[in-house]
């Protein structure tokens, strides 16, 4: 029983071929393709409105030099948002519950922001490792601490996204399993658990959206430090 709870986080496969690539590319097929018509349907209008809103929110903490990252950050936000929300549907697989995938997204983008800062303003980027006015005896320890906190950023991004989504999926499965088991013995108790499950599902929808936004927002803040 304990192992079956974690089966939902294993990558599905057919004939030994993992289907995680299909799971990551499928959300892009749900987005309607844009055309040159002035009048479009409601779905295209909603898509444009959401993309404009996301881009505006992500570009607020950035100056004009960081606006060239708008396409990458907005695309990543839409990608994570769709995958997280689709993962809440029954009999689906959520790729963002895999730590390896989240680290593969976080590490290259964090490294790109770091290299951007070292190329454009090396003195200011290295200056973050040593706060101004630090006593001389504390300089080696603070440099070591700040360097560790800098290098642990991509790991924190990946673990945060993985842990929040995994915990939510496990809670939903545990409560739904308890509802099915108790339905035959205590009919009144499953009614309460169904209510809890409904509220938890709404909470998980909010968590899926918030975690996608936090992931990309932290990347934009890291970028702002280096530009």
TrEMBL record:
Keywords: ATP synthesis, CF(0), Hydrogen ion transport, Ion transport, Membrane, Mitochondrion, Mitochondrion inner membrane, Transmembrane, Transmembrane helix, Transport
Location of the protein in the cell: Mitochondrion inner membrane
Bilayer disposition of the protein: Multi-pass membrane protein
Membrane-spanning residues: 12-31, 69-89, 101-118, 170-189, 195-223
Top-level lineage group: Eukaryota
InterPro entries: ATP_synth_F0_asu (IPR000568), ATP_synth_F0_asu_AS (IPR023011), ATP_synth_F0_asu_bact/mt (IPR045083), F0_ATP_A_sf (IPR035908)
Catalytic reactions of this protein: H(+)(in) = H(+)(out)
One Pfam family per UniProt: ATP-synt_A
GO cellular component, one term: proton-transporting ATP synthase complex
Major location (coarse): mitochondrion
GO MF: proton-transporting ATP synthase activity, rotational mechanism
Quaternary structure, from the entry: Component of the ATP synthase complex composed at least of ATP5F1A/subunit alpha, ATP5F1B/subunit beta, ATP5MC1/subunit c (homooctomer), MT-ATP6/subunit a, MT-ATP8/subunit 8, ATP5ME/subunit e, ATP5MF/subunit f, ATP5MG/subunit g, ATP5MK/subunit k, ATP5MJ/subunit j, ATP5F1C/subunit gamma, ATP5F1D/subunit delta, ATP5F1E/subunit epsilon, ATP5PF/subunit F6, ATP5PB/subunit b, ATP5PD/subunit d, ATP5PO/subunit OSCP.
UniProt family annotation: Belongs to the ATPase A chain family.
Protein name, UniProt field: ATP synthase subunit a
Protein source organism: Acrocephalus scirpaceus
